[in-house]
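Case study 2.
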Amino acid sequence: MKLFVVLFLSLLPLWAQAVEVGERLAPWTLLDQFDQAYTLDDQAQILLVARSMDAAKIVDGALQGQPKGYLEARHGVFVADIQRMPRLVAKLFAVPAMQSYSYRVMLDRDARIAPRYPGAVDKVLWLQLESGKLIAQYEYGSAAELRQALEQVKP
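Prediction:
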């Protein structure tokens, strides 16, 4: 019983932070793969969140072959939760590899942002925003599905 209470109390802050449809997303700032800061603002219309390498690969697959600025033209922001990745691996291999991407990756190194938006670990969470408010959310489990959804968005 004591274990249940401790577990419940430790997860309570995560539930309290979950955003609901109609709520305004709290602004946050993260660094991208070039160490350039990005602050979430009312201009963002799509927030893609990947909590695992598998989910990040879905985003990468969906954006493969797209020109530089494709996601940004759709007012999209991509957040990758990399807190489980060993820091040395991230610094020496993963982040330098991301610098060749044609899109920005906001790196959630300490899992400060991604846990605010609950979803499946192996899927990409799509948060549809309007003036900073959440109006809808979707999950995508394949690059083809995500690519098709992105193609529906007018730049």
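Strands lie at 29-32, 37-39, 46-50, 76-81, 106-108, 124-130, 133-140.
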